[in-house]
Structures
1.
Amino acid sequence: MLSAARLRGRVTPIRISGPHRYSLYFTRQLATHDQNLAIPETVPVPYSRSPPPPFLPVPQTYARPLERDLFWRKIPQWSNLAARDFMSWDWNRKNVVEKEKNLHEFLDNVLPDVVPRAKHLGGVQCRDEFVTDVHGGMKKASMSVRVMPYVLSRINWQDPANDPLFKQYIPLKSLMIDDHPMLHHDSLAERRDSPVSKLVHRYPDKALFLVTSVCPTLCVFCTRAYGVGAHTDAVVKDFTNANRAEMETALAYIQNHEEIHDVAISGGDTFYLAPHILEELGDRLLAMDNIDRVRFASKGLAVAPQRFIEERDAWTEALARLSNKARRIGKQVALHTHFNHPNEISWLTEQASLKLIQQGITVRNQTVLLRGINDDIDTMSDLIRKLCKMAIQPYYIYQCDMVPTIEHLRTPLSTILDLEAQLQGITAGFLIPKCIVDLPGGGGKRPGSLHESYDRETGISTFTQPALKGNGRENKVYKYYDPVDTLDPKIRDSLVSSLREEVRRSQALKEERERESKQVI
């Protein structure tokens, strides 16, 4: 249906010739189209003498035989935990591991006496050494530790230092390396592009609404380490959940800027938004004439799929209602989630995804490319195929952002370029994710293959962003830097020294401008 605001001309009844000659249809003529072009309001269905074939029965859930893998029982303290408890969202919320003492107790229960070190370090270490390594990582990390029971139950605790899930959520000091000189918090300059509190408006037609600072599970490589999660020894967070006044101001801004057609609601993670707030935000955005698409960002499907399966979960029901409302008025609501490795996917994930599909909810996935976790073609291909099997659209593969204390997880640009070439043809073209660099300094998303230059010796790649205008962005060149430890040792030290000097000069210039600005005031 087309809105009255877009309708020009008259509504004309016409008779359709051919196989539909006995049907009366209404067509609309639009001022923006050829006046002779008639657009049917309803698509005619050809008459058929034979009865339609019967529909195949649709299962409510995947089959659940009695021998279904109760994988959480590998955790000693959950060895007798009933499925109904592990499937309960309330139980999961109460058993999150997030404080240092809490984590220490969990590790003491789950670790064997001896565990292997990371493969590139070699050897083994006793349990106490490993726990000390974890605590050292927590003191140095930008992100605090917060892990849902589902994630903990998917980790191989016989070899945690080499487990692809453990490395995403729990830091080890022994794995950390010196930061690149060009790294800094808020590497994407989101705060600079924030016209009002909690809203980022960088692209002309899109806005990012940051409504919460809480996540069900905290990633060590979080882009918003400057504000998400609890304070750490390294970072005092400066971000809070949006209050009512901030929400109203952001919504008013979106409504008053008619060029905005797409809003992504994130944080933090919308999984921890109260269901009535989730629905209210969605309703109010969908009611705006200028908004066509609303996206809710949540890692919940990857780290706590049980919630989606639980009967009468208010958050899931609110999302389903919003999706149905949007579809009825010709708009879109989608859930954007975040899987990085095939091991995150279990039969619970499959059930949760099926429920979302049956409720008509579009789900897309964004993956972050992480060194030693998913930076090889076999792992990434497996992940993509499993996502496709669950009808989740593999959307983006992100080059890991340049934020502090995770240098050991970043890959050189060459890795994502090689991976992109290898991924072509592994499945249908529309299911191949785009390989993206979110450009440092606020340049926005750009395919890695569209770099202007890439010096593999210095590890410096340059990009432009034609889509961004104003604020000095025309013809601006953005740079991405490969991790220092991946560079040729012969030039590494001299390059780092020159980059540090560049940072020092830039900081001095910034401070001078700030002093001049204060003097003018």
2.
Amino acid sequence: MKIAIVGAGVSGLSLAYYLHKYSKGNIEIVVYEQADRVGGNALTQKLDLSPLGRPNTWVDMGVNDFNINTYKAMLELWEEIELPQDQYVGTLVNEASFFYYGATPEETYGFKVYNNGDIYGHNLDDETLKKIKQGFENFVIFLKEWYKENENKPSAFKITVEQFIHKYFTDIKYKQFVELALLPRINAMFFTYEESPMGRPPVLDMPMWLVSHYYVLQEGLGLPDDRPGKDNERKFFNQGCQNWLEFLKEKLTKDCKVNVQLGIDGIKVCSHGQGAYVYYNYGESSYYDKVVFCTPAYQVERITDSLTFTSNKLLQRTKEFRYVPCVVYANDDPSQVPPISDFICAYNVRIYDYNYALNSDRVPRPDGGKFDGMFKPYHMTYSANKHQPQSSEENPKEDFYVTVNPLNMSSKEFRDHILSQTNGEVARATFLHCKFTPEALEAQRYIQLKQIGNWNPPQDKGELYDVSRPSTFYLSGNYCNGAGLHTECILFSKDLAQAILDPKFVSENFYDHEGITGRHPAPAYIREVLELK
């Protein structure tokens, strides 16, 4: 059997590994990648820090950290490929700031959350800080309670963030936590619905199960308090996330005899007989029994001939995903972080006007002013000194930052603070991130059921439950599973590899919103982390 994989990001490379493993090396695997590197959204750049009086270093512009207690699929893969964690993993300073940036110091307020849960505030009174701290503590309890109490209520996992808030945070004492911490954090980590009315936070319409995956898998919320290494579980990728994927590529090419081809132009996939041809480099071609697309969803139609695409329901579902540009800069602009140095953290989140949100009386802003009602989805600034501290320096005085979607990126003031790479190019990256619209999540569900969730559903469930297995074309990528975190991508590729080789394989790593399976509705990997049935 010959299998082609299009895309050499984490999904494509991990799929190649598991196909080799479960076939015991009895299939031929070729990976095609248009870029001249592996990694996809894992992009590491080398920076020229001479303007800061510091040695040159590296920085992750895309995927940049993980939780060592919850990324079980990734860690299992690392163990299997014998990746030396002591060389590839470092511990970050797990603290976060939440700030409203006023026109004057008196109008600026916010707080800092330490790894142990303590909170230190600026221009916020002790009572407000106490309520925020209590909100954080109860959010952990409510999140796990939500998963536990709905073991036999699969429809409960369809609620939105707003409905979750109305269920668990109705008491007015939680208002400061919701508006100054919970909603800003969700807004900073997801692209949301730009169609939401002015003054209404788009994050309110996000599915709560999707948001919960970030809190459970990245921040470890809901895990036992006595878990090993709780205080040091947030990690960064030493020498960059792209570094470990380069290690995986070398493992594939040398030990698994997988052919990984980089810098491939003009890729086009065309169905032919029981298989497909992959055309590339404007003249070359190879025939394969199966082809797996491990690219962003929007690229699938572009690299497939029209007849193949329009005649395949699975591939057509990729049209349901919408993407938004995400621009990332390495910079030393102090306006991207809190104006008080003691509050600059690994994660720096902006507070917006969330008072319009919750169908309750408005609570005045601490400075008595008015917000502009505008929201910037997926905006975050990382302090490199704390988020990816460099082992070559001890306590560097000059910090630099990685900012996702800077608010003033077109201004001269910001451009003057943009750093350069060692090759002279601007330290900038653009990614296209998937918006988790209702249509996209329904398409994700179809992709999961079609490929790894084969069962015998009721006859009246419609097209969604037409789960006859694919025979030639398959999909894998960050849009196929959960929130698209690294460990979710690896886990989906692991399940898909088994399903490709054994059509009778059935996974439990997806939500059962209709209660058809009789198990807990949550995916197995979430149940494992939260120690659910």
